[in-house]
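hey can u check if this looks right to u? its 407 residues, i copy pasted from the old doc so theres a chance i mangled smth
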Amino acid sequence: MKILILAQNYIPEPDPKMHILAKGLVNRGHEVIVLTGFPNYPQGKIYSGYRQKLFQREEIDGVKVIRLPLYPDRSHSVVKRSLNYLSFPMSATIFGPLFCGEVDVMMVYHPPITLGIPACIISLPRKIPFVFEIQDMWPETLPATGMISSQLMLKVLAKLAMFTYKKASAITVISAGFKRNLEAKGVSSEKIHIFYNWAYEGEFTLPDPDPSLAEKWNLKGYFNILYSGNMGPAQGLHNVIEAASLLTDIKKLQFVLMGSGIDRDRLEKMAKERKLKNVKFLPRQPMEMMPSFYALVDAVMVHLTDDPLFEITVPGKTQSCLLSGKPIIVSVNGDAADLVVRAGAGLAVRSMDPVDFARVVRKLYAMSPKEREAMGSAGRKYYFQHLAPEVQIPKYEQLFYEVMRSR
């Protein structure tokens, strides 16, 4: 097959899902072209080594990548964020048909929902079937994350979403809750397929703890609970600060918050004002370094605010946490917690309840090392049996063949 992947973000940006899929398909004998933007996420600045121009071609692991211009942004501004979500789809609408050539099937990686426009423009004249992968449920996620509150704009985006769902040959979703959401909107159940995400880092073996790394970041001698990733309104990490203030009696306990985002400064200020010595902030680390950090910590964390939308999602870091080999504290109501508990990989916490969070941390801390090790091992086992790329890429391949035949 000759497969086109349409995705606004692509490696070296820290969302490698589509590259792992593309590389896996290439290894299975297919030709893959990726139409994407110039890398700028999450800082909203074009990466070093790249310069915006009309287009740029490159090849990564056998995958042909075509980059098109966009408006980079990662600010609080609704206008600037909207320009970001409109600019790449506009570039793809204009230049996509010129660059993609003859392809058999197209994969569209959403968000943003505005990618539905170039998907249809590229698809319709050549009758290219496309699979629409939903990572965030729009428009619901926009007010939940504080991005857009305008009811008029939300209605417009909802109509665009339904139009795209209708035109797609198949839809893939990351949770059973997403499937229920689409069915409630009138999307045919037969069109929807649940494909859980795999780990951001790809497959890895947990290395031995690195004493020099532990020394560098002051992790030695502590019971470390790690959160890594974006620090924004949707993550609600002020709840962790609240819980930390209830756990100051455990002198060797330390929350390690690693990453960046628009809420990080506020979180650091909050911890400083409370004079909390059990909260440590680390800068965002290269993805290839994460296994080394997993080896140094005692538990990992998945955390989102209490919102009905998040009850039906499974954040991508859940899979990384399962693969980390460490017990998981999952402070997300709904599908994500169900997945972790079903795997026997950790403990669930009521979302945005610092008292319950502190209770579960005390429970985990009181467990024996063997009990915690058993949880971590169960998570890795579940991941390889159900979620790993080796399990799921053949399913994508089969779905692509099915939509080609239905054409």
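The chain has a mean pLDDT of 93.
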